[in-house]
Amino acid sequence: MKTGLVLEGGAMRGMFTAGVLDVMMKNGIDFDGAIGVSAGAAFGCNIKSRQPGRVIRYSTKYCTDWRFSSWKSFFKTGNLYGAEFCYKTIPYELDPMDFETFEKNPIEFYGVCTNVETGKPYYHRFSNGMGKDMYYFTASASMPVVSKIVEVDGHKLLDGGVADSIPIKFWEHKGYNKNVVVLTQPLEYEKKPNKMLPLIKFMYKDSPDFIESVRVRHIRYNKTLEYIRKKELAGELFVIRPPKALEIGSMEHNPDELRRVYDIGIGTMESKIETLKEYLKA
């Protein structure tokens, strides 16, 4: 049996995931492998570096800094979330990631990106969190339109959520057969077509496969939710989701709002922690 953890993205909805993971870490819950998409990768990596509290700490401290996320950042750097600040200044200087623990921790940790040239998902296994790994973290969370394309290892990459928002089937194919999925939308959520598709068609006109992936994303996403729900009802999957819509935007400069969503994650996981332990033991 291989235990796996699958982490959906969702920009600042990821604060819910951060709360969930902090409760897991404080209760000593480990997995053989984990895979994150976008914010699920950027925040979820702290489970491999074993740093509970780090996400809420740096997010609330720097959310008012224009370099963290702002339209000023977008117009100055081309990235709504400042790549230099978020993936270099913070993890290396201001609130360092424990790279040594990250590398030594045996848990396999993957991130999902979308290949702009093919429209298909690209799955990257992280090694030590540094160097090229940081470019893959950046790529996984680089939302179309408001982010620069990240070029690494010959790939042109953007947000993994476009091609594989909830990579449960990929994870099962990797051999993980006892899985926990952390979603950032409530049970009743259904994704709608992307309203920005006309702009995406214009901006990425030389990448038709990427445009098509964006066009059908909601269809693929909703089918994945159906698959997850079926397995959940059969007791073959443990799912953690917010009790209601988190109602937080892609950018949030109010630390109290970040804390609110984080606390929902804390409370949700605390209410399920014993059930989760039983599921993982079974």
Automatic annotation (TrEMBL):
The keyword Lipid metabolism applies. GO terms for molecular function: hydrolase activity. A motif (DGA/G) lies at residues 159-161. PROSITE patterns: PNPLA (PS51635). This is Patatin family protein. The active site is at residues 38, 159. Keywords: Hydrolase, Lipid degradation, Lipid metabolism. Pfam families: DUF6363, Patatin. It comes from Butyrivibrio fibrisolvens. GO terms for biological process: lipid catabolic process. Residues 5-172 form the PNPLA domain. A motif (GXSXG) lies at residues 36-40.
